[in-house]
Structures are given as C-alpha cells and as structure tokens.
Amino acid sequence: MTNDPEKHVQTILLVEDETEMVAEIKAELETRGYLVRHASIAEAADAARVGDVSMIIMDRIVFGEDSLKTLEALRKEGVKVPILVISALSSVDEKVSGLKAGGDDYLTKPFAMVELAARVEAMLRRLEDVRTTILRVGYLEMDLIEKTVHRGNVKIELLPREFRLLEYFLRHPGRVITRAMLLREVWQYHFSLETNVVDVHISNLRKKIDTKGLPSLIVNIRGAGFMLNAHA
Q: Which residue, 35, 42, 47, 53, shows the most beta carbons closer than 10 Å to its own?
C-alpha cells in the first residue's frame, strides 16, 4: 500500500488586498507545505461552496468591502470551510463580530507570521481530528480511538509521547518536519529551546516502528529536519 504525497497538500485561499502581506503569508505557509492561492472575496466564496479549498484566510476589509457579509452568508448556506479572519480592527467588539459572523478564529494585525501559521495548523488539525479516526501510511496504521499502532500485522507498543510524535508525522506524510515544529506541536514549547529531546524520541520511535527488510519510515533531511516516508 502506498500514499501519494500530493493528496496531502492542503489548499488555502487568501483574501487580502495588501500586496506585501500577501507575499509574506504565502512565503510562510508555502514553506510549511501548504498551497496558497490569492483570491477575491467572490472567488473564495465560490470555492468554499464547492468544497475546493481546505480553509480560507480572509481580511476583514478588502478594497473597502466588509468580508463579514460574505462570511455570514456562507454560514447561513451551511458552508463549513474553516475561515480565519485577519484584521486591523482590534477591539473586543470587532473580534466578537467576526466570530459571530462565522469566523473560526480572529487574528489582529500586526501579527507574527509564525503565529498565523500556528493558528492555521491548529484549525486544520481540528478539522482532521473531527474527520479522521484511522491514520495510514504504507503498512503503518494508527487507530486514534483505540490508541493502537500496527505495521502490517504486528502491533507496536508506544509510550504516550511517542504516540503523539508518530501521529504528527502520520498527519504530514512526505512533508519536511523541523525540530522546532515538533517542539511546538508535540511538546507545546512555544519558544526557542536548545535540546536533543526530539532526536532522542525519534531514535526510540524508529527502533519500534522500523521492521527488518522494510524501508525506514522516518528519514533525516539534512539541514532541515525529518520526513515520514510516504512510500514505506
């Protein structure tokens, strides 16, 4: 059994009228493996209606138009695509308006690109958590309900942290995963930390999930991090 990495590329539509902001957001998210397409409010709405998008990042005011009107209309139509509202309007009332209109999250400008990326990843992860109970890559299978892992017919016993670490890789097959990403998403460290904890856990995890005669599942990407071999 093999998985095509292209199936895991998630498309994000960006509704934003500031050219520099568009470039910064695209650069940040595309380095994390997402496909980012710039779109108008109308184009984003059409894509959301047909389900041709993983999520939308929508500026509150685009060329003088309040995008919340479109957001509210989409929600009334039953469209459930995750939408992150970004805006220079930072008062509590404005945030409440954005959320009440149907926004899944609201981020005020100016913001750090790493925070935007973290919000995006969290939203998409919640979406996947709702949809998925079984994760599979190659002959490796994880049951999120039973908390079990098998490679072929062999059951693999993992410690809780190892389970969460492998789950993160299984949700991002074929994608380069940095140590910083793992520290943030698996260990919940939202700051720079000099430690070899990631390497130690990955080494222990490999000993458990790799099978003699089969390719190694987690490979090192020199100077970048690690990758789950989607064809193992």
A: 53
pTM beyond 0.85, yes or no? no
53, exposed or middle or buried, with CB in 10 Å at 0-12, 13-18, 19+? buried
d(CA 141, CA 155): 10
* Three-state DSSP string of 143-160: ECCCCEEEECCEEECCCH
CB atoms < 10 A from the CB of 46, how many? 14
Cβ atoms 166, 209 nearer than 8 A: yes
Place of tokens 């098998």: 150
Diameter over CA atoms, the chain: 61
Of 121, 65, 60, 62, give the one whose Cα is nearest residue 87: 60
Q: Closest Cα partner for 44 from 79, 91, 18, 93?
A: 79
Distance CA 180, CA 177 (A): 8
